[in-house]
Amino acid sequence: EDKVVQSPLSLVVHEGDTVTLNCSYEVTNFRSLLWYKQEKKAPTFLFMLTSSGIEKKSGRLSSILDKKELFSILNITATQTGDSAVYLCALNYGGSQGNLIFGKGTKLSVKP
Amino acid sequence: DSGVTQTPKHLITATGQRVTLRCSPRSGDLSVYWYQQSLDQGLQFLIQYYNGEERAKGNILERFSAQQFPDLHSELNLSSLELGDSALYFCASSVKGLAGRSSYNEQFFGPGTRLTVL
Questions:
Q1: How many interface pairs between A and B have CB atoms less than 8 angstroms apart?
Q2: Residues B61-86: b if buried by 16+ CB within 10 A, e if exposed
């Protein structure tokens, strides 16, 4: 059965800390892995990863994929209170184009 | 602002009723996806349309149906509503959606419709 598991489920840190969010998966016919940030409203796209070992970076956020070990990590350095959100990992898998299967998310709270 | 619009923002209705949720994709996007997000289930993929045709089905109940119109907007119809259907319903759009050379699948989400069934 295709599945996506994120850990931890919840994380509380202080501003300035560095955090690592994990996403492991089991999926047939992998196409891509995506990270989204969800604050109070809709998820917003962060990264899409298709190849192992190639880091994607955007400001203080970065992500990398390991297709051999079937996981991805999302790193946030020098966290700020505005980083507080639920971070969702999603797999685009085969069977039908465009399907995404989402993990339950990691709820990150950044305290001042 | 993702460019995807959804109406209404909030909907409160009673059990047994039928409602229609509306979505307009980003300009140029041919694919529309519907998701349901509830507290206990997380984000669940319901159904995808590409250029007017159904492309993929996820965990969509038989009481639910959707369609995509020639102008590419989409509607999700929920009937015989139950208390458990209360959730946030998102629409997302992307450019691609057909088998092809690229696995690119960045989806842009609308603001959602919050459905409350009393």
A1: 74
A2: eeebebebeeebebbbebeebeeebb
Percent above pLDDT 70 for chain A: 95
Per-residue pLDDT at B100: 42
Per the CB < 8 A criterion, the answer to whether A61 and A86 are in contact is no
Residue B15: closest CA among B87, B80, B76, B86: B80
Task: Say how far apart CA B29 and CA B106 lie, in whole Å.
Answer: 11
Q: What is the reported pLDDT for A58?
A: 92
Which tokens sit at A94? 């085969």
* Cβ-defined contact of A97 to B109 (cutoff 8 Å): no
Q: How far apart are the CA of B116 and the nearest CA of chain A, in angstroms?
A: 16
pLDDT tens, residue by residue, B64-99: 999 999 999 999 999 999 999 999 999 999 876 544
Six token digits for residue A17 = 């800390």
What distances in angstroms separate CA B30 from CA B8, B34, B54, one per listed residue? 22, 14, 12
